[in-house]
Each structure stands twice: as C-alpha cells, then as structure tokens.
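Risk register update: the risk of archive-format incompatibility is retired. Evidence:
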Amino acid sequence: MASGHAALVFFASAIARREAIEASEAWVRRELGPWLEARAAASGRPAAPTATVPIAAVLTGGTEAQVLKWAEASTGPVILLALPRSNSLPACLETLASLTQLGRGGRIVVADRGDWKRDLAAAADLVALGAFLRRARVGLFGGPSDWLTASSPDPSLVTEAWGPEVVTIPLSEVVARAARQGDADARLAAEIERASAGTVEPDGATLLGAASLYRALRELASEHHLDALTIRCFDLLGELRNTGCLAVSRLNDEGLTAACEGDLPSLLTMMVLGGVSGQPCFMANPSDVAVDEGLITFAHCTIPLRLVRTFRLRSHFESGIGAAVEGTIAAREMTVARIGGPGLRSVRAFAGEVVPEESRPRRDDLCRTQVTLRVSPVEARLLLDLPLGNHHILTPGRHAQAFLDYDRIARS
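Archived output:
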C-alpha cells in the first residue's frame, strides 16, 4: 500500500488541566514515535509517495472548532486520533460529522484500543494514496474504444471525481515511436520468450514488434510525466499488425499502471486497487457467470507476469494476430473491483477463491488468460443485475474492504 510521512498535530481545550494535557501528549509521542520515524524513512524512498499525512491528535473535548479551522488549510480527508478519556472521542465524532457535511472524508482511530496502530497506519496509507491520485497524471492514448459505451467518461469527470489529470495523446505518437525498432527491443523480446513456457502463434517479428510497443509507451510515459496510462489498443491491429498486450502486461509488472482499450474507469480502479494492495492488477472481462454456483470466469490477454506461475506466448484472442499472455494464476484468492456509474461515483468490490485450473479446463473460446472465482451467489447476481461496465480489475488477496474504505474515507 502507498505510504507517506505522518505528522502529529495536537489539540486541547484551553480550560483543560495543563498537567493532564502534557501527560496525554507525552504518551502519544512515546507510543507513536518509532512508527513516525519509520514512515518518515520510508517516504524518502524513490518508489514511495512523498505526501505528508497530518494526524490530528485530539487530547480533550471542546476542540471541535480548532480542528475544523486547522482542516480548512488542507484538502482531502482528515485522520482524527481520539483518546478514550477527557471527552476526546465525543469531540472527534462531532468534528468528523461536520467534515462529512462539508464533503470531506476522514477516519477516527481510538488510541490504545484494539490494534490501533495498525488502524492508524491503514488510514494514513489511504490518505497518502488519495494525495497521490490528486496530483497524478494519466495518459489516454487514442481515446476509448467505440464499444465502451458505459466506460467513456469525459476526462474532466475523472479529475473531478477521483483527482488525476487526464492527458490525451494521439495514438500516432505510439505508432511512430514503435516503428523505430532497435537492439534493446530485440533483447527484450528474447528475454520474454526465454521466460515463457513456450510460444504458440507469434513469430520472432511479432515478438519484436510487441517489445517495441512496450518501449514506445515507456518512453512516452516518461516524456509526458505520466503515472498511469490506457491505450486504444485495437487500432494497433491495423496500424502495426500487433497488439499492446505484452506492453500493458510489462508496464504493470514495473509499477506503471496500464489499462487497455482506452478504459479510464478501469484505469482508475487499477490505480486504487493497486494502491491499497501494493500489487499489480489484471484487467479482465467477466466472460461466464453461474449464479447458483457462485462462479465467475474472468479472461483477458494482458495479465502481469508477476501474477502467474507459468505463461505461454499466444496470439491476441479476437484477432488471432500479435502477441498475448496465456498465464496460469498463482493466487488462491483474488479481489475484484470496479469504478463506474453516474459521475464515476459508484464502486464495487468483492473477493473470491480461485478455482484450480485442473477442475476448470482452459477454454479456446475465451481470451487467453482465464481465472474462475468462487464468490457469493449474491455478488454473482449483482454483477448481472447492476453492472458498472464490462471490465473488472483483479488482484491477489483480500482487499475489498480497503478498496471500499478508500472510496468512503480518502477520495474527497
């Protein structure tokens, strides 16, 4: 999960006894000192977000107006650390209710109760992720695919609802850059082929072209200062006689979130789910559903190689050309998530158990990488009755609650 440097700001009533305030502040500093130092050290690493996460340590009651005034100087959610004494918790409840009325999110953590340091760290991570998304730049290469009728929001809506700025870049820039193939592309193609369990349809020229597409997107992402990207990949079938499947797979393996088909809601979902899980994500189609059995089969051709045990290099499923990934999922459990709906304000997330591939043989009538999850029949029915769109995002482990917490707490 994303992390950032945390800083404590203390609040106490003017009428509270000074010795009690000083004792409470000293206790908080003593309890959180090592944790604060560890987060400060982690925030200096190149791959870590650098946002400072302020935590309001509310020592007494009667502090509501103070905290609200302090919160006016910042944007995003507020973390309130409540003490189980001195009317601290009542003050935090009133303050967070006021912030919610103002459209601000936040979370209250009660000190010295349960695993409160873990809860505080989780809240701080969500706030840091929110700060990252509000300053992020995402690239939209070529626009969304024509069939994404529910998944083609105006880029300004992405910024308004979730924070990232969308930079629209002509697909011709990718095509021109990818046409200039070099030795580095050949070495990458050979490296990927050596790592595979076999190559079925793609020939050497196809793999070279797929590697050059990866390099083109990586270079353009650097030049445009992008934190994530999505590409109208089907147009590449005509322009380059290739696909972006391997490029998208490798970019996600390297930590640059990438989606296909110009799907911005899916890209946002990947950024949030990847942020709360700390893992790459797989963008896939729900291709088969058995509601009574609670089974959903997801399939696509772009899975990051970090998420598979083994893989083969295949052609792109629909077109039969290009290079794609046919992987065997390594995880035993996966979280599924999706952002969509009016104003991009709806979110959904659930977890499922991976059905072993030997009991669900690979099908030739679906995209190359396939995974079947056993989920609640209620979730399977909801997928059919109230869809937010086609593409869903999967990542290993159980992270549905953290994903939903981000929407509720940190998206403001």
